[in-house]
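Example (one chain per record):
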Amino acid sequence: MARPLWSGSLSFGLVNVPVVLYSAVRDRSVRFNQLHEPDGSPIETRRMCAHEQREVPWEEIAKGYELDDGRWVLLSDADLDSAAPRKSHTIDIESFVEEREIDPLYLDRPYLLVAESESAARAYALLGEAMRRSGKVALGRFVLRAKEHLVSIRPRGEMLTLTTMRFHDEVRVSAEIADEIDAAATPTHEQIENAMAIIEELEVQFDPTRYRDEHRAHLERIIKRKQKGQKISVPVADESKPPAPTAPDLMGALEQSLARIRGENASKKKGKKTRTSERDADRSGSGSPRA
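Predicted structure:
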């Protein structure tokens, strides 16, 4: 069962809602440990002094900030504690904004906010319903793991979600990258029309269950096969296939892509229609009287 990461209250004007915070996502990455292959022993990481070539105990380790000239400023734990944000058990809502105004680049990690008790449920439900009707997103701050976070809070179903956000100076200015792009590379009207047609052909209702981590699934299959003692063969890259041209005929590529996608969609619809007809025929046949 998931464990709460933080507990406190959500402050909305003079209303305080006791809440607990849970992670809304889970890490499903396949993780590995480093082992000594001949005997299977774990590999240890030791903290070594590069000058004295000896292992250094924790009490002799300091944190250092490197200056532009290569010198170091050493900071003790006490120095860092003096700069730590004041611990708080309150998420202070400072303002409300339109959700569309928040660039997704500013969003970081999602969490779930849950009412801490039955007595807090009424105020929790009130805030959620008010935000649903207004269509607004709350912005606030709180301290988690000795770091102050800017957060956005919004309703999701019957619950409230909290997403930590990046501060404005953490988001790279797009103009820094755009300057490197050829400003004269303006698409033609026909190219835009074909690109929009491709988008329309590929448009579907978003269903998160349609997408899965294929790399992780492949890794898990390999691990199971190795566990059973099976041999794993590495696929050989096909070097005979010529690389894609660096400057393709853009209009031709768009037209070919559109024709291929439309052909695939037509085949899917035909196959679905055939399967439906076969099921209808089976139902009709099963209901007919036997001779």
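Caption: Helices lie at 77-83, 118-134, 174-178, 189-202, 214-227, 250-287.
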